[in-house]
Write a structure and sequence with these properties.
Distance between the termini of chain B: 31 Å
CATH topology of the largest domain in chain B: Alpha-Beta Plaits
GO molecular function, one term (chain B): acetolactate synthase activity
Number of strands of chain A: 22
EC number (chain B): 2.2.1.6
CATH superfamily of the largest domain in chain A: Thiamin diphosphate (ThDP)-binding fold, Pyr/PP domains
Distance between the termini of chain A: 72 Å
Number of domains of chain B: 2
CATH class of the largest domain in chain A: Alpha Beta
Strand order of the largest sheet of chain A: 3-2-4-5-7-6
Number of helices of chain A: 19
Largest sheet of chain B: 5 strands, antiparallel
Organism (chain B): Candidatus Endobugula sertula
Helix content of chain A: 25-40%
Structural class of chain A: alpha/beta
GO biological process, one term (chain B): isoleucine biosynthetic process
Catalytic activity (chain B): 2 pyruvate + H(+) = (2S)-2-acetolactate + CO2
Shape of chain A: globular
Bound molecules: thiamine diphosphate, magnesium ion
Order of helices and strands of chain B: EHEEHEEHEEHEE
Oligomer: heterodimer
Chain lengths: 576, 164
Amino acid sequence: MENLSGGDLLTRALTDVGVELIFGYPGGAALHIYDALFRQNKIKHILVRHEQAAAHAADAYARVTGRVGTVLVTSGPGATNAITGIATAYMDSIPMVIISGQVPSARIGEDAFQETDMMGVSRPVVKHSFMVQDPSEIPIIVKKAYYLASSGRPGPVVIDIPKDMTDPNQFFEYRCPNTVSIRSYTPTVKGHGGQIKKAVRAVMAAKKPIVYIGGGSLAGQGPELLTRLVKKLGVPVTSTLMGLGAYPGTDEQFVGMLGMHGTYESNTAMHNSDVILAVGARFDDRVTNKIEKFCPDATVIHIDIDPTSISKTIAAHIPIVGSVESVLRDMLKMIETSGKSLDTSALNSWWQQINEWRDKHGLYTQNRFDTSGMIMPQEVVQAVYEVTHGDAVVTTDVGQHQMFAAQYYRFDKPRRWVTSGGLGTMGFGIPAAMGAQLANMDETVACFTGEGSVQMCIQELSTCTQYNLPIKIININNQALGMVKQWQDMNYDSRYSEILYEDSLPDFVKLAEAYGHVGMKVTKREELKDKLKECFAMKDRVVFMDIYVDPHEHVYPMQVPLQSVGDMFISRTERT
Amino acid sequence: MTKRIISILMENSPGALSRVVGLFSQRGYNIESLSVAPTEDVSMSRLTLTTLGDDEKTEQITKQLNKLIDVIKVIELSNSVFIERELMMIKLKATGSAREEIKHCVDIFRGQIVDVTPTIYTVQLVGDSDKLTAFIHAVDETAVLEVVRTGISGLSRGEKVLSL
Ligand SMILES: Cc1ncc(C[n+]2csc(CCOP(=O)(O)OP(=O)(O)O)c2C)c(N)n1
Ligand SMILES: [Mg+2]
């Protein structure tokens, strides 16, 4: 067998684990690796304009494909620039491998040029990390990294590679086993039979059940199995921001997102439920509101692959550690063979109650915003939804526009909703759209953003030009850091501290044009739909839609802080 | 909040300890004491850690520790019967009549004087933490010049073993 340099071992190992696409940015400590990349043709590299964007793009690629995203950066500033993107992926449990160049082994600890302790800096935001200490270990480390990133509860894994490990003049045999096992890592996949039986019994005896799904239910066949189970039981289902699309968003049994900006019907149903079946969700503070007031009558069944998620905030009465896929499959089998179903009359009156809530304040049963004046942010999302027939891959930035997108773009299929939930990272939208587009060049990819967020990674418009990534940017321009403004309106007597730009916003149309793209400004309601149609008809162009909306609109419903799940402001003037 | 003793078997690899310690600061847990060394199999380290917590908190800590990739096994020793030992070395000013008094005290506590100068005794003592603390209180506090304690090491009583 021919011997390879460390750089070639790396590209070979990456190819062997199935990597086709790398997002990255070169620099001194990564030069040998970049040279190895140049000398091969199996892996395509996308040169971003900022390492943060490389991580976000790889993250989005992972979210839409279910595969591991790959990032390559240099040491020091390259590595630290990637940290925000790594933390974003970590909080949302996204499988990703980040390869960072490092100063040569002999220089480590000397404060060498562009030296940063990447192992240390990234430690709190990675699932695991490796530092290469012997070039011949590169293939096995790569294999382990991809295995760790994608198994159990997925997450980002760092491989830090000192420059001398990829020395082009030193050669090693390529040795890599077909499978890896790590003695200290054995995620529990199969749920405990006794616990599952208990869970099934509790669900079947429920009078007011609700299924609460999160990002974990997107794994593998989770969405199909979940849909089968929910259909079989005939029960309502609600989703976290992260879980949207795991269950069809337009289905009757879907009561909408829950949590801080969840629908009235889902939060109210949660609060009044007697059994909660939590599937791959983690009872995050944006969902539970005040822990002590959380769903007082509910028996909590919690299915999660990560034992630390169970009973971390809300104590589970019936904990089940295991993969969503495996546990749901076992539950279905048990329910199907028992031939039993829920108490029909109880379930009917539960649905009657839920439908009353829907009719009263539902987001989809009535228009919950004023359409007499300026364009409203909600109708922008609705219009995009209609124009794209509800079938776009949607990415977002962070703020009010993100919540409106979550509320009004209803996903019938999984892996088409790409948003930074856990970390809430402004700047995520455009690079995420690039990653999603690269995952499938035939899809329509729309990025909902705000004039604040979009400027955090705006440089990526150049990357879109270079690689012909025809993403559609829907800038919901409310001329303010709207989400912050909403909090200042609600909690600080509208003292607008540092949320306005004082006429300094760029001309986004010209900016888009400067990068070689199409820009359109929309200010009138009458034009909205037609302009959007024009935008999405330009299949092979990046289009930047700068849509001016009512700057005063708030996101509702909104949970009243420190209260129960079901305690909400429904509008500026109504409270539950 | 009571004292909890957690025993960890983990990979003896660079960075493993920093991940354990990092977890505690990251999640706002405290470490009262920590002792760590390789086991009979040098690829593994055994770590004993004491912390303060109620049942829920301790359960979350052990789960979080288990989640670290380098950690092979975790048990809470204080959950059942266990043996704990700590080693202390204490340097005491020992002149005149104090020399006899200290020696007497060391005998009572079954310690050893391991270094002697005309004015100093260095005493070594092994036992559970309370015994070591009791010794410090038993000698004249103005005589204490320096104290070094290893932190608790422990294992389960009986047949139970923490191994691969
Ligand atoms: C990197 C980063 N910095 C700060 C924040 C805090 N933050 C959350 S939403 C928001 C305002 C976003 O403004 P914009 O993008 O215009 O969206 P809008 O809320 O107006 O729709 C800010 C500053 C954040 N989430 N991320
Ligand atoms: Mg804004």
